[in-house]
Amino acid sequence: MKVVLENVTKRFPNRDKKIKTEVTAVNNVSFTIPDGKLIGLLGPSGCGKSTTLFMICGLHKITEGKIFFGEDDVTNLSPENRGVGLVFQNYALYPHMTVKQNIMFPMENFKGEDKLTKEQMLERTMEVAKLVQLDGLLERKPSELSGGQQQRVAIARALVKMPRVLLLDEPLSNLDARLRLQTREEIRRIQRETKITTVFVTHDQEEAMSISDEIVVMKDGVVQQMGVPQTVYQDPANLFVAKFLGTPPINVFTGKVSGGALYIGSEKIMATPGVIDQDVYVGIRPEGFVVNDNGVLTCDFRQVETMGGFMSVVSTHENSENPIIRSTVTDEVKIAEDAKTVKFDIKPNKIYIFNKETEERIRIEG
Amino acid sequence: MVNSKHQWKAWIYLAPAIAVLLVFTVWPIFNTVRMAFLENYSGLEATNGATFSFGVGNFVKVLKYKRFISCLKNTMILCVLTVPISTILALLIAVGLNSIKPLQKILQTIFFLPYVTNSIAIGMVFAAMFNIVGAFYGTENELIVTAGIINNVIEFFGGTPVNWINYGSQYSANIAVMTVYIVWNALPFKILVLLGGLQSINKQYYDAARVDGSSRRRIFARITVPLLSPMLAYVVITGFIGGFKEYTSIVGIFGENMGPADDAGRLNTMVGFIYDSLSTNSQGRASAAALILFGIILVVTLLNLYVSKKKVHY
Amino acid sequence: MNDVKMETMSEKDMRRVAIRQAIVKGLVKFGVYAFLIIMALIVLFPFYWMINSSLKTLDEYRMSVPTFWPHKVMISNYASAYKTANLGKLFVNTVIVGVVSTILSLVITVLSAFAFARLEFKGKDMLFAGLLATMMIPGELFTITNYGTVTQLGWTNTYTVLIVPFLVSVFYIYLLRQNFLQIPNELYLAAKVDGTSDLKYLWRVMIPLALPTLISITILKMMGAWNSYIWPRLVANDAAHRLITNGLRNAFTETTGDVNYPVQMAAVALVSLPLFLVFVFLRKYIMQGVSRSGTKG
Questions:
Q1: Touching check for C20 and chain B: CB below 8 Å?
Q2: Which residues lie below 8 Å from residue B284, measured CB to CB, with a gap of 6+?
Q3: Confidence category of residue C259, pLDDT binned at 50, 70, 90
Q4: Which of A201, B304, B190, A174 is closest to C39 using CA atoms?
Q5: What range defines the domain where residue B182 resides?
Q6: Does the structure's ipTM exceed the value 0.85?
Q7: CATH code for C85-251?
Q8: Do A80 and B213 touch (CB under 8 A)?
Q9: What is the pLDDT of residues B57-75, one digit of tens each?
Q10: Is the minimum CB–CB distance between C154 and chain B shorter than 8 Å?
């Protein structure tokens, strides 16, 4: 079941009752979620991703635009009729019911020809419980479960009605670091097995990058870029996307294009055929630096940090927008401890230039 | 270090409270029990030097006393009628209030109004409302015409007026009026508590249930009521306890006569019985009745607690 | 598990479902409002009827077809009511009793709640539990003995008998103690280190912070004095000490038969007015005080 958002906008009345203008949480967003894929809605807090999710679910009314499930216009359909499953950030497990009752609850709401017998309901409950590895916990109450277990119950409850779309709101944010890694793999495994179109919301780019088939990056209610994670990482559409993805974060410099070449400070970094002269932002991924005594970029050396097989060279530069520049290099590189400067070559596919005003990416031909 | 000073200080702070409580709360508990077991105890006779034997004679006498049985019956009937009606009504109103945004504050205020009224004063208003229309006999020979809005409304819709509370009225009519009045008085507190309970239920549970496809009725029955059950239990228990102590509302409607003009004391309750015995200086009888009342309240409360243990979700 | 998907609905069906949803939602909303407004009118009706009746002449009141607003507005009924029921004296009595008992009660309640909340002493928990236990016992049990006690003390028909027995309400001590417990203990310890005496700390810190609860208690206690009937009737029934509810009821002993209802209603209105004013201005405190007893279960 693919999900299509068409010019979807959501406006809220301002929380301060005196201000008449509304707050636009989601602004004219359009994208298509392909059937059977796991999509990550990614962005900083307040960017509108949760609001978008709730509109897909039906808990928020859409101010403008349409939403389609497949060919059906569900814009005005209330959540109970959309056939979606939602996993809340705080799980929202019914505290007075056991795990089994929680999971069975959605099935008891089936009407007409979808109605199931008690045996069928139990059978499905067991299936789903096994899928999320909850067997043995069915008679417990939510308060007797750990965070990770509660979350699996929430997922089971959403899955048991075989939804057309499965939605997860920040599923990993309430878990400790160790569980997070484990659970995100679980989510991917479950999605692969059930093949249900799944959308999850997160502010953690690493999480989104690692398990999504595609990611949608949002900021201030607007979609910045959508695509396969690796593509979005390697080919960012604007400075925000470039800065948001990647650990350690991208290193940003101010620079200038002049005469078909890019300069940072007075150093010529590379050729930029076809690009008009302008001031630009330059983003260089940490892994884009190659230490070379004849390199094109000279930075003031600070220190070297080693972590296992990786070395980070920490330096500064007067044109750097970040307080420090972090370059990850292999540990075979040797730099004298008392060196004042370090020179780098830049890998051409790890450097990006952006328009200084609009912050849009300037792509170089050839 | 500071502790010993604390001890001393604490007792000084508590001294006035403890003094008053000892005299007017603790001592009465023992004394009332004592008097209950002193057969035929009368305060008046006691001061004149009479002695009394120790035994359960008071209890036996009370339980066989016709007046007591009638008071017990009235109390029970009113309890059984008013507690369920007022609880269910309060629940419906609270749920209704919880679901609307505009007008909620105003309506909440209106529903709370009966709580701040004087039970006896407004009782007089209800009495005026339920009076009968047309000619009737004030006493054996007087012919009086009075107006009562309730009967006016009944006549307006084509029914025959009912003699609710006047001379010659039926017991069932009296009980009906008392039920209406007691429920009217009981609603505000119940609505307040239940509405508070409803508002404390996390909205996310409703959202989750909606996404799960539940109809409004299902949400109410499977989510709202169970999560509200602690409040409901509290309201029912206090409702019963209050119901057993019903007295002033009857005075409000019928006056000290405690019944229609031709049958004084017909609507008297247990508490009324205790006070009547007091004023005739039969403290033994009053104490026994009071202990019986306390016993009944205790049993009913324990029953309620037992039921709530099984059905209430905390 | 993978093959079953929900039936896809055509666009026309979709629209029909959406419309039906909207209609049902609208009906339900309408039904809820209708129910609430009808109930609210029922609740309000006695008040309206009281005012309406109080302003009528006796003849108009007795008309077989009632009027919904008096044709001739008889404000004089209020004056008659005031005189007949001697409301002036009753009012004074009740205010005296109310004010004195509230002030004394507040002092005792504050001291006791403070002791339970902040001070450590042997037997504290047991004492508190014992106090709570007494809340379960119906008041009538106490009344029987107390009647005898106050008679022996010769307190009948005085103000004292109306004030003293009710100075201590375990419920209010409990309520205030809960409130005190919520004030961080660090404030107390800091004040101690600064050498503040307990009473000063109470006065400058705890009482201001617990003010809403104290106001609720004050209001509820004053209302209690205003509405009290049984005890005053029993022990202080003479004209010099009669309280207002008692006086009201017994100035108009008949409720059936030949009664001047309008005047009676006027009296009721006069007696209810102060309560109503308190409610209008201080409703927040009353409702908080009452509901706190509810949420603590």
A1: no
A2: B35, B36, B38, B39, B40, B41, B42, B52, B58
A3: low
A4: B190
A5: 64-130+165-311
A6: no
A7: 1.10.3720.10
A8: yes
A9: 778 888 888 888 888 899 9
A10: no
